[in-house]
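ENTRY TYPE: paired fold submission
RECORD: A
CONTENT: sequence, then structure tokens
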Amino acid sequence: MSVVIRKTTKEMVSEVHELSNLEGWNISAANLTLLLQTFADSTFCAVDADNRVVGHCMAATVTDNLCFGGLLVVKKERRNEGIARKLDSARREFVGNRNFSVNGLIVHLDGHMKSRFKHHVFDMKGFANNIINKEKIVKEITTPTKYKFVSLTEDMVDSLGRYDTGINIGVCRANLQKPWTFSEPARTIVALDGASICGYATVRPAETGKLLAPLYGDSPDIISSLFAQVLQSLIDEGEAMFVQVPTDNKTMMELVGIAGLREIYTMNRLYSKEAVTLPLDKIAAIMTAEATIC
């Protein structure tokens, strides 16, 4: 049965969400909707003769010379029909001659490096588990008294955007970052050193439990303190937490161990042309695996 590749419309979002659930990606409807709305010009669906969505992929413009790709999925019973190639072809047309990046599962690394990608820059692990004995965990994390931790308010949104731009290779991404961190159902804690922002952490609902995405901090003690703040105020006892951590961030890798989070997968950051250097010592948890480089 043939398929047609179309731009994703709001009427298709629920079917894309269902496909992501079947893959076990744990993306909430709110998070998926925000991503697809933000990058509406570069999200693609494969639609069958009955107008049902049987596949999806997206690209996100990071800079004029760099695109990021994710959410490539085909309905299980329609695989091995060339649908993924058709979706990727539409995405490649959008990307054009620009540098292209993805987070690839480690099991596919050899194939990726032989086909399209030249640079394997760092690895990232997904962790999840129910948080138990959180007060005991928080006590194990030392919080320096010099920092202040506050909930994000409207008067801080622009300053937070400037801080985020500094983490994101100097590129403003307010079209996603502002609603991701400030609009319902997000909850964001900001770390202050005096009047200056020195880190932040956002928690959003996942399909199951809570997603900590991102967590950025200028130093290991800020990262540790923000993690403790998240556990103390935004994660309920017994609630599942999901987080994606660059393995180069040794502070966060240690913290997820203290919290008893379980490793569930490993991904590789890949680039087709030039490798992009990120401040991984400041990136304890990424914002998304689907549309952002950090």
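RECORD: B
CONTENT: sequence, then structure tokens
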Amino acid sequence: MEVINDLSSLVDRLKKARQEKKPLSIAYHGNVIDLWEKLADSDVQIELGSDQTSLHNPYNGGYYPVQIGFEEANQMMVNDGEKFKGLVKESLRRHVDAVNKMAAKGMEFWDYGNSFLLEASRADADILKPDKTFKYPSYVEDIMGDIFSLGFGPFRWVCTSCDPADLQVSDKIAGQITGDFANDKSMPKELTQQYKDNYIWISQAQSHKMVVGSQARILYSDAQGRIDIAVAFNTAIRDGVIKAPIAISRDHHDVSGADSPWRETSNVTDGSKFCADMAVQNFVGDSFRGATWVALHNGGGTGWGEAINGGFGMVLDGSPEAESRARLMLSWDVCNGVARRAWGRNANAEFAIKRAMEA
């Protein structure tokens, strides 16, 4: 990755990388609105664009207006909140104008989901179609919703021993199970590619050296994959192959962990995406099926009042009881969300929940 501070140098570097046909990651050190406007006025064709700006908290450090510098913004945020709010809204209008200009040139744009579209509309930016819906989709509508509807989402685990050797063993276990699914000739084609992609990730995870603190990992998998991995972890702990318990969990940004009309449930099209039933049912259902702890909270990625999240943690200690709890709870934790999405008539979810019931 290269870090560049000057916009003209960034555009030149981008053109050079394209000529060389070499993959390159560039980080611009500055205000992203300056970058959007520079690209909009340049002759560089940008094919894909998105935005992960922290607009779930626009007026307290999540979004910095382009008109003033970082330190001045921090002072104004505290001393003149109304003026700061006005600058943020003005910046959002400029931000959207640049995106619209690039979209008119052929760029495909989607909102990552941290309330960019929502806050832009509140700032009276040119972000709405005549029917008052957003001009651009959230990436859950465009990409992730269909993956969640298959039951795939971010499964997590933490090795409580804090020993890198335990994480390495857990990676091998998860990789073996995921690889077996990927190579299973009887596996439906809808699932095979998901398993193949995630096998590549987990088989290379050690080489990327992503761990900087807790010995933890994240891997996208579905209900059966999560259950099989958890059971195998529990067996390895029982047999002493892994030295200490493993705590399993997931992200709230998952199949069934969050109700948010602007992100996680934005592709639920039956009119019920404004209800928080899925997260609440997950929270309660997980608690009765053996979770070690559960959580129900507001916000998370899209902002206070814009989402409800239900979460869990489960400790695998090698006992038969831990295996039983993992089988029961993980099935509910995933399939609850798949069923919810199937009620909204998502084709992938209808396929996945029928397959789960047949099993």
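NOTES ON RECORD B: The chain has a mean pLDDT of 92. The beta strands are 2-4, 26-28, 48-51, 108-111, 153-159, 216-221, 246-250, 258-259, 293-298, 308-316.
STATUS: closed
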